[in-house]
Design a protein that fits this description.
single chain; alpha+beta; Immunoglobulin-like; Purple Acid Phosphatase, chain A, domain 2; 2 domains; eight-stranded mixed β-sheet; 7 helices; binds 2-acetamido-2-deoxy-beta-D-glucopyranose; signal; MPP_PAP; Purple_acid_Pase-like_N
């Protein structure tokens, strides 16, 4: 059969299986018309949490002499405070980046709208700080890219009331073409300048060239995360706390064996978690450990073997991953099978990238897999209080934010698991 015919037949079959749902085709990469701005005009603005009640404001100017200053205040047009930051740039083969500014501002009030301006000129922007306590809502979408589906996903996220965006890797799909980092930065600015975007790296951020370029040069320069604030020596793994949630961002593409820096840092970070202060413990990384899609099957196994015993002993509540271009939710699991003291694993790598969806699944569906579907969309995690959280997945179906999977998740704080695992955790944390 001709490929197109096979595809049509496959679509018809899947349409009859899921009755009212017809799976969408990939959409084209967006075209960005040339939109010249004065060289000192701040572009690609995004913000991220930077330690207790502080926010890092990041933006880029073509002008290398533009100051790294942020002016801000709680009323429009009135900036009673200003902060000076740092800047960097990078070269990548023939490409020269603009001046990349990172300026930390604060202390800031919780749950408050701030108006701000970067570099002493340009547009006034605004963001809202997260609340100090529950409830708090996270928007989650990985493997974004910059296609028509990315735009659809971002539009849907924009309609939801959320406090922080979590991104488990694969941002721009620049894939060596550095100007695509710039178009991505401008594409996400309307959202990423208004709520903190907390990201970790995926394979598409690596962009290493043998003997010429180390990995993650562009990603690290542009998307600086609070690794120093969380005692990490690498932008590829860090943690932060917000409103009763401790969130650990791990690096699927940094060393993770038990002698690695990342593992040592993770032990140190977990030893500081206080479940009375942060009853919820979340972990994000790019390559899923529990995945019943045929795409990237088994790729996370080595990292899982190295790190799962530690995460299990620490009673992690939820693990969010990307990489596979589909959605899958898994029961509480550990060591390859369901376990009431393990983490709920969710793969949400369906933000809208140009590579399309991953349709092929392992059959029969493993005992631990609850819900799986190859569609573009995003997730929302509303943590209601110390014991209850509501997770929902919204597929972009026909550009309506359809809610396709939803579940209440209860925290391990309300179980016996933490007490049960206390000795095991201490043993691992004390090991040299
Ligand atoms: C937490 O939220 C859930 C769901 O709304 C509710 O049933 C429960 O009573 C709440 N617990 C506390 C301690 O408020």
């Amino acid at each position: 059969m001709e490929p197109r015919l096979i595809l049509t037949v496959a679509l018809l079959i899947s349409a009859t299986v899921t009755a009212d749902y017809i799976r969408p085709l990939p959409r084209k990469t967006l075209q960005f018309p040339w939109d010249p701005k004065p060289s000192s005009y701040p572009q690609q603005v995004h913000i991220s949490l930077a330690g207790e009640q502080h926010m890092r404001i990041s933006w880029i100017t073509d002008d290398k002499s533009s100051p790294s200053i942020v002016e801000y205040g709680t009323s429009p047009g009135r900036y009673d405070t200003a902060a000076q930051g740092e800047s960097t740039f990078y070269n990548y083969m023939l490409y020269r980046s603009g001046k990349i500014h990172h300026t930390v501002i604060g202390p800031l009030e919780h749950n408050t709208v701030y108006f701000y301006r970067c570099g002493g000129q340009g547009l006034e922007l605004q963001f809202k700080t997260p609340p100090s306590q529950f409830p708090i809502t996270f928007a989650v979408a990985g493997d974004l890219g910059q296609t028509g589906w990315t735009k659809s996903t971002l539009d849907h996220i924009d309609q939801c009331k959320y406090d922080v965006h979590l991104l488990p890797g694969d941002l721009s799909y620049a894939d060596y073409l550095q100007h695509r980092w710039d178009t991505f930065g401008n594409l996400v600015q309307p959202l990423a300048s208004g709520r903190p975007w907390m990201v970790t790296q995926g394979n598409h951020e690596k962009e290493s060239i043998l003997l010429l370029k180390d990995g993650f040069a562009s990603y690290n320069a542009r998307w600086k995360m609070p690794f120093e604030e969380s005692g990490s020596s690498s932008n590829l793994y860090y943690s932060f706390e917000v409103a009763g949630v401790h969130i650990i961002m791990l690096g699927s593409y940094a060393d993770y064996d038990e002698h690695s820096d990342q593992y040592r840092w993770l032990k140190d970070d977990l030893s500081k978690v206080d479940r009375r202060r942060t009853p919820w413990l979340l972990v994000l990384f790019h390559v899923p450990w529990y995945n019943s899609n045929k795409a990237h099957q088994g790729e996370g196994n080595k990292m899982m073997a190295a790190m799962e015993p530690l995460l299990y002993a620490a009673s992690v509540d939820i693990v969010l991953a990307g990489h596979v271009h589909a959605y899958e939710r898994v029961k509480r699991v550990n060591n390859g099978k369901s376990d009431p003291c393990g983490a709920v694993h969710i793969t949400i790598g369906d933000g809208g990238n140009s590579e399309g969806l991953a349709h092929k699944y392992m059959n029969p569906q493993p005992e631990w897999s609850v819900f799986r579907e190859a569609s573009f969309g995003h997730g929302e995690l509303k943590i209601v209080n110390s014991t209850h959280a509501f997770w929902s997945w919204h597929r972009n179906d026909d550009d309506e934010p359809v809610k396709s999977d939803q579940i209440w998740i209860t925290s391990l704080v309300s179980s016996e698991c933490i007490a049960q695992n206390r000795h095991e955790l201490r043993k691992i944390l004390m090991a040299p």
